[in-house]
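Technical annex B. To support the medicinal chemistry partners, we prepared a structural model of the target in complex with magnesium ion, based solely on the information shown next.
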Amino acid sequence: MLSKASLLRGMLRSSELEFLMEAHDGLSAKIAEEAGFRGLWASGLAMSAALGVRDSNEASWTQILEVLEFMSDATRVPILLDGDTGYGNFNNARRLVRKLHQRGIAGVCIEDKLFPKSNSFLDEAKQPLADIDEFCGKIKAMQDSKHDTAFVVLARVEAFIAGWGLAEALRRAEAYRVAGADAVLIHSKKSTSLEIDAFMQEWAGRLPVVIVPTKYYSTPTDKFRDLGVSMVIWANHAIRASIAAMQSTTRRIFLDQSLANVESQIATIAEVFRLQGDDELQAAEKRYLPAAELRVNAIILAAAQGVRFGELTEAQPKALLKVNGKSILQTQVDHFRGIGVKDITVVRGFRKDLIEGDAFTTIDNDAFAETTELYSLHRALDAVRGTTLISYGDLVFKPYILNELLHDPNSVTIIADADFAGADSAADGAYHEWVVTDQPYSRRASYGFVQLRAVEERIREGCSGEFIGLLKVNEVGAGIVKQHLEALVLEPDFATMRMRHLLARILTTDTVAVKFIRGSWMDINSIVDLQRAEGF
Ligand code: SPV
Ligand code: MG
C-alpha cells in the first residue's frame, strides 16, 4: 500500500485538479474523508480557532502535533500540514519534519513570513516577508531531513498577501523551486483570481501550483483547471460551518431553556457513536475481553412438608432438616451463592413462616399439601428467565455439579446419577425419576452430550441413571419450559404431575441433555437418608 506521503505526492502530480479539505481535529478529519476528499489540509487558522486561540503561533508546535496525531489516527487519507513559518529557523523546521513523519503526516507547507506569523487576511502591515535566502535554507534543511522521500515540502509564496506584486511572487517562487520545494502555494486575498491568473501564466508549469481560493470563492473551479492549477485547498470551511451551527444551537438552547427545538436539527447520539467507530470497539471487546458475567437465577422448590419423617417434620418443612449442622435449604443457598448466583427464589409452602432470609426471595405454594414440585415450579414461572438453575428442596449435592451445569451449552440440561443400582421406587417406597438416554453411561458419555429419551417412575430396561432433581435451562430453555408449563397447567390433573411429565412434554418439541454424575448427591427421603447424609 502506498504511504500517505506517496498518495499526496501523486495528487500533486496528477493531471486532474485535486482538492484538499480543511480539518482541524479527528472528528472533522473523519467527516471530510467520509465526504470523499482524498486529502486533508490541517489548517493553522482552523486548528487554532478550534483550540480557542489566535492564528499567531499561540498554540505551540507540539500542541499542533498532538492535534495532527488525532487527525491522522482517525483517517487514511494524506494530511498536508499548514506549518506556518516552520515554527522557527531551519533547525526548528527540520525537527518538525522528523516529528511529522512519526505522526504519519504526508507533507508540510511553510510560508515565507516571520515567526510568529499572522493570518494572511489580517492587516497587510503585519505581513513582513522572510529573507529569500534564509527561507531557501529552511526548504533545503527540511528536504535533507526527510526519512520518506515521498514526504512533500511545499513553499508558500506570500508576496501578493504582503502587497508586493507579480514580479516578487515569481522571483520568490523560482528561488524556492531551485532550493528544492516539491510545489508552490501561491496565495492571494483578492476577491477575483486576477493575481493567480497572472502568476499561472508566467509560471508556466515549472512546479505544481496549489491555491487557496477563500477570498475569490466565486471563481468557477473550471477556471483553475484551465489555468493548470494542480490542487485547490478549501481552507477553513469545516470550522466556519461548525461555528455557525454551534452558535445557532447554543443560542437556541440558552433562550428556550429547553432542548425541544434543537433535537431534530443536530446529529443524533448514534451518529456520534458511529463517527467514533464504536462498532469496532464492540467487536474488539467480544474478541479480547472475557465474556460478560453470566446472569444466573436459581429456584429452590421447598414447599413440601415431607411426611415420611414423622415428628421431625411435624413443625418444619423437610428443606429445613439439618445435615451436618446446616439446613438442606441453607446448604443449597450457600452453594448457589458460592458460584456467584445472587438471584435465588425459594418456593415455600408448609410452615412458610420459617423460610425467610435476605439471601433469597420467596414465592408461596399454599396448595403444597395437594401438589408437587412441578406445581411449585409453575408458581415460580416468572423466575424462570435467562439461565436458571432449578433444584428440589430435599437435595444435598456437591457444588461442583453446579459448575458443570453452568458450562453446559444445551437449552435444557438435567443431572442424572449413573450409580443407581438397587434403589427402586417400588422397593424403598420413595419417589424416584429414572432416565432413559440415547446412549448408556460411559466415561466418554460423561464428557459428551447425552440426550434424554424418557423419564420413568419405575426402573425398566434401558434406564441409565436417576434424575437427581437438579436441572438448568438457558435463555432458550427458559422459553421452552414456560411454553410447556403454561400448557400443562391447563390439564385437569396438573396438581399431581411431576417433573417427569414436564420433561416428557419438552421432548415432544425439543431435546433435553443429560449430564451424568456418579454419586456426589443424596435426596433426603427418610430418617435413614438423613443419617446416611451425616458426613456426606
Ligand atoms: C490556513 O488555513 O490557516 C491558511 C490559509 O494558512 S489562510 O488562512 O488563507 O492563510
Ligand atoms: Mg495558516
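Notes passed to the chemistry partners:
The first helix runs from residue 4 to 13.
The chain is about 40% helix and 20% strand.
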